[in-house]
Amino acid sequence: MKSFLDIHKTDSADLRKIIDNAIEMKIARKGRLRGACDDDKPLDGHMVALIFEKPSTRTRVSFDVGVRQMGGQTMVLSGADMQLGHGETIADTARVLSRYVDLIMIRTFDESVLLEMAEYADVPVINGLTDRTHPCQIMADVMTYEEHRGPIAGKKVVWSGDGNNVCSSFLHAAGQFGFDLTFTGPSQLDPEDEFIGLARGKGSAIQIERDPVKAVEGADLVVTDTWVSMHDSQSTKERRHNMLRPYQVDERLMAAAKPDALFMHCLPAHREDEATSAVMDGPHSVIFDEAENRLHAQKAIMRWCLGV
Ligand code: CP
Ligand code: NVA
Asked: Is residue 57 within 6 Å of ligand 1 at its C-beta?
């Protein structure tokens, strides 16, 4: 039984297989008429629980659609409506759900909830975002980069802004897929030392550069994310905005990267804060391909977990 908890916890050969399978399934599906797809149905007879303790558009819809495309069925559960949100332990919830469903995807706050769910469940568990990481997103992002520009190994990725959960999974991916990452942002919001160390330990060049224009020199990919994540208190909003404003990705910053650099944002975005609309809708941007690829990447992740 294989859970997909984080990119650095998954074997790099398996990560590569997942990306390749995602691309194969995407191509196979595009070759057919919309609505007339006759995929083989590897999830036939499977029930998947999708648990959300935080809001979601992409994760919710892409997992639900992905399961259905593969012939399975889903139950979308809100954490607040479950006994989980009213005092039942995570361990008991995991053991009970395992009697009903074949796979659990959970989006939660503290990663200890995810880890305890995985420890006590008898079925695979997928991380649909915690305060600390967002691995499914970065699998879609690696897939998106490679579709547009070929292998990501050896490329320079620049993260501009908050060293948050999405940034952490990018650091994990740097180590596992063999690319370099430069972080540019205020020191108060640096990514976790542990994750920087992990990526460096795998041979990736990880740099911290406070000057965003210097940071993006030679960048193949520029990435940003919201300045206030779902787990951040709204009371920190003004302080965060003030610290992060110099790291906004605008056309001037993109012009300092390589001419063929891509721009990514996992969405949802706050336009004109972390990135301007000119960049988000401009020639470097692949943000909607990233969103689409959540579907394909997660289908491949679920197949890997279930061995189907
Ligand atoms: N990128 C992402 O995970 O989006 P949602 O919060 O809409 O799921
Ligand atoms: N960093 C963001 C990502 C949302 C998909 C958050 O955690 O809110």
From this structure: yes
291 lines ligand 2 (CB under 6 A): no
Catalytic residue among 6, 58, 132, 137: 137
Residue 266, CA atoms < 13 Å, CB-side half-sphere:
29
Q: How large is the average pLDDT for residues 219-231? A: 98
Q: Number of C-alpha atoms within 13 angstroms, CB side, residue 81? A: 7
Q: What is the rounded end-to-end Cα distance, in angstroms, of the chain?
A: 12
pLDDT at 35 over 90: no
Among all chains, which residue has been given the structure tokens 């995570």?
90
Q: Is the pLDDT of residue 179 over 70?
A: yes
With 0-12 CB in 10 A as exposed, 13-18 as middle and 19+ as buried, what is 57?
A: exposed
Sequence letter at residue 46: H
Amino acid at 19: I
Residue 254 C-alpha from the chain's centroid: 22
Number of Cβ within 10 Å of residue 36's Cβ equals 6
What's the CA gap between 236 and 238, in Å, rounded? 6
- Evaluate: CB of 224 within 6 angstroms of ligand 2: no
